[in-house]
Amino acid sequence: MGLKSFxxxxxxxxxxxxxDYSEITKHKPEAKxxxxxxxxxxxxxxxxxxxxxxxxxHKQRYRIIDFKRDKIGIAASVEAIxxxxxxxxxxxxxxxxxxxxxxxxxxxxLEVGAKIMSGPDAELSIGNAVPLRKIMSGLPIHNIxxxxxxxxxxxxxxxxxxQVMGVEGDYATVxxxxxxxxxxxxxxxxxxxxxxxxxxxxxLLGKAGRSRWLGIRPITRGMARNPxxxxxxxxxxxxxxxxxxxxxxxxxxxxxxxxxxxRKKKYSxxxxxxxxxx
Length: 278
What we know:
CATH 2.40.50.140; mainly beta; 4-stranded antiparallel sheet; 24% strand
């Protein structure tokens, strides 16, 4: 698991840094664990553009990931570590003792042949899924449930890890990677370990074409447009919005930096002990 750079034979290779994929042991997905992934081009069910900058890209199939880890008490062995084009983390193919195969998000240090299990009686070792009340303070965890039985929703991308700070009554106090400290029901499951592929943040695509392969289209800056096209457009030269400085906004005038979007009376406010933005 590392990065590779290239000799500067072309302008794009000069700035390219890509993963070396040394941890990948299987190069084709398990066909029965994939489904078709249709391109949307950023359009919703009515055909209206709701997400800009999406289109094209290489064809992909979605890998069905087991976020619930609900095969309680049944041991599984790791058959392979695979690449997943739909997420920044790697995925691990498990084969359970009853013959069923499933994918999970692969934590750091999980190797082919390792034995893992989920349930309240599972050991506190990498890859095992256990309830929060059974996890020691300070142990890195990922794939954390917010509601019991709903499957993991927190800490699923590359290099993510949270920590249990303590358990009091029915709730565990968890510190998330953002710095937020919140209460989660102690019967919710989490997986031991830190998510793998920590070098993902250091990848440099090197050229615009590689972004297009990923389905990312170019977007023009608002300041570079005309006033008719964007609230921040116009002005003589490099000015922030025509007649004077203008706070960064979207093309429809919604604040882009610093504007609060969270509802003031959201139900989960009661569970957040410390916000990530202090």
